[in-house]
Amino acid sequence: MHTEEINIEYGLQNLVTLKTSDFGRTIRYIPLETTDESLVGGSPVIKVLKDYIVVESQRKCLLFDKKDGRFIAEIGSIGQGPDEYNDAFSWTDEKEEFLYFLRRPNQLLKFDMKGNFSGRIAFSSPLGQFSYYLITDSEIIEYFKDLSPTRGYVLGFFDKEGVLKDSIPSLFPATEISADEIKNISIFRNTGMNIMVIEYKNDTKSITCINPPRIWKHNGSIRFKEDFIDTIYTVSNKQLMPSITFNTGKYRWPAEERNSVRNTNEHIFIADISENKDFIFFKCISGLYADGRDKRDFYTGLFHKKTGETKIGKTDDLIADDLTHFMPLTPLGISTAGEFVSLVEAYKIMEWVEEHPEAKNNEQLAFLKNLDEEMNPVIILIE
Prior knowledge:
Blueprint: E1 4-7, H1 8-13, E2 27-31, E3 45-48, E4 52-57, E5 60-65, E6 71-74, E7 90-92, E8 98-103, E9 107-112, E10 117-122, E11 132-135, E12 140-143, E13 153-158, E14 164-169, E15 182-190, E16 193-200, E17 205-209, E18 215-218, E19 221-224, E20 231-236, E21 239-247, E22 268-275, E23 279-286, E24 297-304, E25 310-314, E26 333-334, E27 340-344, H2 346-355, E28 378-382
Parallel strand pairs: 1-21
Antiparallel strand pairs: 2-28, 3-4, 4-5, 5-6, 7-8, 8-9, 9-10, 11-12, 12-13, 13-14, 15-16, 16-17, 18-19, 19-20, 20-21, 22-23, 23-24, 24-25, 26-27, 27-28
């Protein structure tokens, strides 16, 4: 079966400065409404759906209208009550009518887009703390990723009642991890990624991407990408069919060496992936197991499906806006409607405007006239 190839090795050896025109032709700015109830805290997780913007921040899930940024509702709450969840991270269904939240040990709680509790799904087995869920019209697929992957499957296929119907075996041998073997746990964050690095007493390490989008739906197909495996698979008839390959060349990190800390600083780890009809958007890291962020290098990559071109730039080199001549930005991912998503804090915008006062005369940046530094962030969509 023919697979497309994303040439990571070439991209890393020929770094470019990415521009907004590399991602699309138009930019839309959506200031999120600022009220006492809708204040967005630091380091928010943003999900842009077809009609809504979901913001998860400071243990709250807030919903905004995608058309104009109007605040709609706070969705549920964290707590120990029967209708409260453990974490504000959410998943949506295929029609994007509901949001689902994890209630350990074995439930997903369901809320509608007005914040009303709409039921629960009780699964036949405990749900993974760091798992990810794809909720289709006919089933719920669990990507199982936990500190001790002893379940035996990497993808579990459940019916809408939470009963396991089928599974795909883990791509790696199961490992037992004892808490006594753990020496240190640290979490680092970069442009929307949250990665946990676990250090063991035997001088090995492992990583867990927290709430990683490792399974997604695109153009009717279900896609899957496992850590340390350089392949994006299409899930068909409960089988994994290779579809897109990351050619990491001399930077390849063999899966059998995924716990080794020796001679790994040049190895590349594919940390985040999203897709639309034209592009595969990805983020990757070298020096993943290095001690200290200054020893890690973060990259942003773009693969154009039609031309086969791979472009990679350093994430610290922000994306220059050559479309509307606004401030540089950092793409975070792709919306379910196919737009590239970014977010800029209001205070950072105001600092930039002070240095570029002429921007207020730019008709494409009309939102600047009503912005102040105390307001909620601005969502940026490129398509």
